[in-house]
Design a protein that fits this description.
Elements lengths: L2 H13 L9 H22 L23 H10 L7 H10 L1 H6 L4 H20 L14 H17 L1
Length: 159
């Protein structure tokens, strides 16, 4: 019998209700939580948590808006993946950077052409049946993107 087993058995014995021999579940839960806290404190005293990644640093991505592609982005960053991505992943990456790409363009016609080219890539990727991750990137509304580009451009000029 290990020390852990003895501690659990002792907790159950102390949690028994006088007279009927039944165990009070709330008392057992509190005692087990106390046992877990003791084990964590002992591990901290032994230094078992000292070399954890991000020790003393903020958790990356905490507080960011929900991004359905968070796992792909972290995988790419963590594994330093470079080179040619599957089209579905490349489209997600390009979609995230599309506003910045459009902001570098100087004319409305160039913005329209860039958004239309992006939309053609989305449609073509959806037609392909090569396997890989699904294409979940939606096409962009050309007129709405031109309006947003124009508003961002005016805001940059006024600033």
């Amino acid at each position: 019998m290990t020390d852990r087993d003895r501690t659990r058995d002792g907790a159950r014995d102390r949690a028994r209700r006088p007279g009927d021999g039944r165990v009070d579940p709330e008392t057992v839960a509190v005692q087990q939580a106390s046992y877990v806290d003791q084990q964590i404190r002992a591990a901290m005293a032994r230094g078992e948590f000292d070399d954890l990644p991000l020790h003393g640093k903020p958790i990356p991505g905490l507080g960011d808006a929900h991004d359905p592609d968070w796992w792909v982005k972290r995988l790419i960053d963590r594994e330093h993946i470079t080179g040619v991505l599957p089209e579905a992943l490349q489209l997600r990456k390009d979609d995230a950077a599309l506003d910045a790409t459009l902001d570098r363009l100087g004319a409305e016609t160039a913005v329209r052409e860039a958004v239309e080219a992006f939309n053609r890539r989305v449609v073509e990727a959806r037609r392909q049946l090569r396997g890989g991750p699904p294409v979940i990137t939606p096409p962009r509304d050309v007129d709405a993107e031109v309006r947003r580009w124009s508003e961002r451009r005016r805001a940059r000029r006024s600033a």
